[in-house]
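Give me structure tokens for this 110-residue protein.
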Amino acid sequence: MSLGETACSYALLILEDDKIAVTADNITTLLKSAKVEVESYWPSLFVKLAEKKNIKDLIASAAGAGAPGAVAATPLAASGGGAAAAPVVEEKKEEPKEESDDDMGFSLFD
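Here you go.
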């Protein structure tokens, strides 16, 4: 995912969350205030995506789908528009306990 996709994804989510109209100008303004420069075509692509898809539904479907440890594929990713990826839930694996010098019967400073 490029910087333009990532930045516009976050801008789209912010606008949607704050219930602000998703327009190319609003995305551009938000990106400029964050001092992020992207190619001029990215904001308009994300506006088209927002017109075709309900962003809140996409977020809800991505959050509830998939098994632990797997990233859910959303229509955003399939459409090439990109979006904030669902966080990867990692299963905790017990790592083998490292032996300390005390376990070996001697230490470095004996």
